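Provenance and format

Records in this collection were gathered into a single text stream. Each protein contributes a sequence line and a token line. The two records reproduced below are adjacent in the stream.
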Amino acid sequence: MTQTPSGPNPSASSDEIDLKQVFTVLRRRALPLLAAPLVVGGLTYLVFRQQAPTYESVTSILSTQPMAGSTPLSGASVSAPQLPQGAVEQVIHSRQLVEQMSDVVEDASLPAAQKTALLDDLEEALRGGRVEGLSVRARLDTQQRGVYELRATGPSPEAARQLATAASQALLTWDLNRAREGVSRARQNLQRQLASLGQRLQGLPPGSPERESIVAARGQLLLDLSQATVLEEGAVGSLSLLVEANTPQAPIAPRPARNAALAALLTLFAGIGLALLLDALRRRVRGVTDIINLGLPTLGEMPKVPRAQRNQTVEAATRGGLYEAAGFVRVNLMPLLPETGALVAVTSARPGEGKSTVTATIATSFALADKRVLVIDLDLHRPVQQEFWSFSGRPWVALPGATEPQQTTVAQALTRPNQASALDVGRGVHLLPAGEIGRQVTSLLSHPEFPALLRRWAQAYDVVVIDTPPVLSVADAFVIARHTDGLVLVVEGGATSVPEVQRVVQNASSTQTRLLGVVLNKVSRSEQSYYSYSYAQQG
């Protein structure tokens, strides 16, 4: 009878955003994610800290409409027409104004080095067409009325103020000359006409009608000339000084602290985005649903055991936090194995997924079910089973076929089977440790007596659990599994990628290795659903 799974819905899509998984990814990458912003921020601070300071001075120019209907008799004046949008920005960088600014800077009271630097910038502007460090910000209405802000930068507060003052003076002078230009041309024309009439009067006799007519015309021209002179002298531009250039108190650049903070934040955000992107591209196995979607039977789920608590794993599997999880794995595994002499290899796709912990846990669970259990540590590259069991004061037990039993390791037991013995680590579990491997691992696994010895040793036990190396690192697990009743694959939840599991399945198929099922390891206790009863039957 199939038991209905409880807990989270296994049909839920694994592609949905899992905030807990996001935090898991960020926690796993916490060190580089925090170190990179600190390094980038520190370097940014040092780089900007060494740069020379830059100060900014601001002066404001008011733009108004010209007054209409004015005459010299009423005391009014001539005004220049308003400038179109963007005209001030173009004019301020023109050759005429740059030359005028150079004259003002030349007369300014500045240190020689700063004056030379400003003059060099202005000279460069004559060649390039733009003054660096000088900009215009317009705040105008639809009728071009408003305020122009002239912003000038320099290596010192006074240099910035002088450049802003020079720019405003040059701009106001240009605007005033623009207002006077038309009246000036009219005055010059009237002067030429008066000179011409004066020459004509010299050749005419006194009292002649023509002379009288020219004298009358000359008088009107003199009146017009006086009016033009008044208009020229009273002409005003459409621009006027609103606020004089200020002397800045603090530099606007560099700002090492601000720039360092921005660089650190950008690096942090970029690092978080990259970490999440890489995690998404890896398509990690996040839960039982991902295993089912791969068509693999799930034997159970195991919570994470901290590395520092390895010596407590057996105790936890006996009556602690691992007891129930190990029981589910055992219950699902038993129908797939012979009643006695069963050989089970345990492996993982890559190192660090906890397959050795699962090996010790499964062995303990079988022993609690009154099964005779032998654990063989055949991860000869990185053996760790000795960290789970207590060796102190424990007896050694002869393995089947041993006529002169002695304390042995795997290598010694394979090469001298007549001396092979295992350590009784208690609770009905015997352990054949890896020990110090002083020869090539391949030669041990290819020993001609290896398959027969495994079966001979299994005769004295109900279950033999073999700890093997990760299959994507070395091929030892498949070499060993060919001589067993099947292979158990340990997958770390949220860490192992789907392509890695698929590669293991493909390699198992190509080597004709029976894959008994998957144990999802290092699962958060709040996420454990124990769907195990029904899933094992699918394999």
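Adjacent record:
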Amino acid sequence: MWADNETSEDLLGFKVHAELIIEVIKDEGLLPVSVGVFGDWGSGKSSILKIIYEQLKGDGDELNEGTLVIYFNGWMFEGYDDAKAALLETIIKKFEENKKISTQIKEQTTKLLKSVNWMRVLGLGFKKIAIPAASAYFTGGLSLIPYLSGELQKISPKELVDKLQGDDGENFLHSLLKDKKGEVDETTLIREFRDDFKKMIDQSKIKKLVVIIDDLDRCTHERIIENLEAIKLFLNVEKTAFIIGADPRIVRHAIEQRYRTERIGATSDANDKNQRIITDYLEKLIQIPYNLPRLSDHEVETYMTLLFCKRQLTSSYPKVLESFREFRIKNRYGVFGFADIETHLSEQEKEALRSSITLIASLSSIIAEGLKGNPRQIKRFLNTFTLRHKLASIATIQDFKIDVLAKLMVLEYTYEDLFKELYTWQSVKEGEPDEIKELEEAAEKSQMASLDIKYSSQWKDEQVVRWLKAEPKLSGIDLRDYFWIARDKLFSSLSGSTLIPAHIKSLFKSLLNFGSASLLKDKITNEVLIENGANLSLLLSLFEKELIKTPNNSDLHKIFLQMMSQRVPNSLSTYKKVLKRIDHDAIPFSLRADFVFAIKENPELEDLKTQMDPKSQIYKALNQKK
């Protein structure tokens, strides 16, 4: 098994990307600068950021050769009252805690931390903090805002209760925000914060400050925006560099949510303008975007080879890793495989690795394509594969072939509907379905078009056809044991949900809260239709399960109707499957107009009426005489 954590150990050959970003921030002529390390969920962003952090801080503390480097994990502060304040406070305290510079800047850090406390108060809003602060005062606990709590304690309990519960409670809290300079104003506060921060940088005499922000895309939309607003405070502050790792689609969606209230009921021109606002916001914040490339087939094969080496080797592993580094310098395109490592292995180690690496070589291309070259997905795939292989051994299954298991799992994780369809076929044919033989033969002869009527269109997808052609062939193999091992996926959604990319989960949630018909149509055009077949299958599967659970949810039906109207691949077949499993009387009668409009837009949807129970209200509504 392999741990699913970020690491500075480079098994992906990503050190070259880290070194490129380091070269950028070492160029003092480019400072101040903000760099975005962009990639999908699990693409290796965190590992690159760890490599950058380790190299910049060197063997000593976080101040190395005049560079102070700070690593901030946004997700760890998800539960804090104000993520913006948490980031600012972390940066300032790193200055305060560093013994080499703390004595020079004590006055500035104290002043800056006080400013952060005021920002926290202003950022939360008075109505949000009145009750928590008062409650903390009376129960003896700590307030969310220690500084404000101190001000409240100067007032008698009876007077405090009267003022907070009165109509003028908010003005009362405003009156507490007095400094020697007068009332605290947020604009003035931010300007003074920037000035004080510059002074702290100068007084500390550091050459540069590098702040690495990780896991931003794991945060809620609100927290993402708070962190982005904090970063904006430092833009154009001399000697600073920010390196931000994130999935840009999730960040864009968070920015979009910020403008959501302005977009409800907006025209398409207004929506286009909002998209430009989102793009401008992100481009101003991230001056240098760096998009991580997807792993190639050869890189996937190399990565899996090194993962197996790490798991199965002990004393030889460091030699293998060093050999890989040397190989990658000389050859950026080839596979680092068994022939490259066997000279470092004992005979026993060679034997232990041989079968695993042979399997990797035969299936790496379809694993690479099926899992989109995503390192985290590959690691999770291999962990599940290992568990199932062990289960087969413990269950003493005879003639069990691990390459057959691996091939079936690729279908399972990329086209779950087809995997379940294959399960149904084999369950009625004692494990050897005629259908898979027919499909494999058609794929080999490039005759898939001849099977149009008999099989769903998904079997024609290029990726599925390549899967059908790949060895080992499944014709003539009893598949019952393999599906018995995979029954956790067949009878539970838990194993599949952990492999759904974060941006698909985010897209699913945003579609559920579409707001208006025009927004839903735009979102399907701009976000759903651009997804690949595997991700579309996952998204449709989420909606399928949700609608089966709540067939009376009008919005879910509207989402399907809009996707079918815009001819989202397999949306029609998925909706038909739903209709077979739900009570049609649960479909809200109010959806009649939506059905009529969808059928008018796409006549193919007329066929939906034949799937409905003739006794149901929705069927009668759609077939009533005009």
